[in-house]
Amino acid sequence: MAVEFELYELLGISASASQEDIKKAYKRKVKEHHPDKNINDPDAHEKFQTMLAAYEILNDPDMREVYDTHGMEGVARGAGPNDVDPAEMFAQFFGGGGGFGFNFGPGRRTKGEDEVIPYEVTLEDLYNGKTVKMNMEKDIICTGCKGCGARGNAKPKKCSTCDGKGWTTINPGIHRVARVQCRDCKGVGERLKEKDRCKKCNGEKVIKETGRQEIHIEKGMTDRQRIVLAGAGDQVPDLPAGDVIFVLKAQKHEFFQRVGSDLLATAKITLTEALLGFSRILITHLDGRGVKVTSPPGKILKPNDAIILRGEGMPVYKRPDEKGDLHVVINIEMPDEQWLKTVDVAALAALLPPKKPEIDPLPEIVDEVPFEESDIGEIQGTFLDQELGAAFDDEDDWEDDDDDDHIHGAPDCQPQ
Ligand SMILES: [Zn+2]
Ligand SMILES: [Zn+2]
User: Where are stretches of biased composition, namely Acidic residues (predicted)?
Assistant: First the structure.
């Protein structure tokens, strides 16, 4: 097994790929392998996790260097110059018997592997909280042999492939030696003859069991937050079971942007409202509530003015009665030309403030240039995306650049 290049292969890139290429490849693969899009593939979760782990390692330049020089074993050993414990991370990300067949050497494991499951949540979920019920299939200790794998009193024999060590070494490259789990005894160091194996688990010591599981997405939780179900992972003989860890992946919202505990939204008001004020539901909130706002008398709102609605932001995690603020940027809708045709323009001009006077003194040269409309929207859009991207999206690993995931497409905070 070409262990050393497996991570690059997983992402479908060469070992010389740039960090940018790695990011792109990952985004591509996330879409391709997302379990929600591969519901008929029983291995989808595992593939997805494995890919996630590959990305976590290759996206970190320090970790990538360790991986490039020392291979997966280096990463597992924690040869990294940074403070993260890569072995721990690796174990978590490769939980559930991920694709590599590594272990971390004899005596390293003190409990079963953790299973990390990405879980997509909407901003509504994070605002309101949510309980998710699911069926989860996991390994449990075989009830037939109580986890010994043997039939009756049969005793296993030392594995000849690995001489009882449970691992073998491979040389995937010059100066590189990697330790891989023994294929024949799966790291145990012992093997049972076919006829001596427990009939129920076929000597595997564990059997599959499907059970109901529940997770609670609490108000105010954040993107990437982990919900740990301690000991809910696969059972393994002689070790406490690992954990099942759900990692929240917050979807982008169509109208609200989250900045810590605060929310940011845009509301449209009419020109009349900008000049004469308003008192109406400005926003439909994430819990379906209408948020009514009355502008103070005599206040004129200008384009891009912002207002702050205190206590209408996100709930604070573990203190859900406390909430951040909601910042609303005001967009002013100009009346259309159809409207202009219906009014007395002279009377309107008399009511509105005067037009700008000509420059005085006039410049020596004045050129008359034809009026032509420009479709500048796209250029501005790109610019705005970059600005907002920089301000609110510093971690774009989770970013999904297509919008077809927005199943909650109902306009949430459009003007009423
Ligand atoms: Zn059994
Ligand atoms: Zn063996």
Answer: 392-404
Ligand closest to 207 (CA) is: 1
* pLDDT tier, 176 (very low <50, low <70, confident <90, very high otherwise): low
pLDDT per residue as tens digits for the range 273-328: 999 999 999 999 999 999 999 999 999 999 999 999 999 999 999 999 999 999 99
Enumerate residues 6+ apart whose C-beta is below 8 A from 295.
273, 277, 278, 279, 301
CA dist 411 and 402 (Å) reads 18
- 255 by Cβ neighbours in 10 Å (0-12 / 13-18 / 19+) ranks as middle
CA distance 402 to 144: 49
Burial (0-12, 13-18, 19+ Cβ within 10 Å), 289: exposed
Residues near ligand 2 ion, CB 5 Å cutoff: 159, 161-162, 182, 184-185
Q: Give the Cα separation of 260 and 326 in Å (integer).
A: 11
How does pLDDT run across 385-407, given as a tens digit for each residue? 666 555 554 444 444 444 444 43
208 membership: H or E segment, kind and range: strand 206-217
Long-range contacts of 55-62 (CB under 8 A, 24+ apart): 55/11, 55/22, 55/26, 55/397, 56/89, 56/93, 57/7, 57/86, 57/90, 58/7, 58/8, 58/11, 58/22, 59/19, 59/22, 59/23, 59/26, 59/397, 60/84, 61/19
* 135 bridge partner residues: 212
CA dist., res. 227 & res. 54, Å (int): 22
**Nearest partner of 263 among 272, 271, 275, 255, judged by Cα:** 255
CB 285 within 8 A of CB 297: no
Centroid of ligand 2 to alpha carbon of 169 (angstroms):
12
Q: Rounded to the nearest whole angstrom, what is the distance from the C-alpha of residue 97 to the centroid of ligand 1?
A: 19
3-state secondary structure at position 95: coil
| Cα–Cα distance for residue pair 31/51, rounded to 1 Å | 11
Write the pLDDT tens digit of every residue in 99-109: 343 434 444 56
Which residue in the block uniquely carries the two structure tokens 């691992």?
Answer: 167
What Cα–Cα distance (Å) separates residue 98 from each residue in 51, 259, 393? 10, 35, 30
Cα(184) to centroid(ligand 1), Å = 18
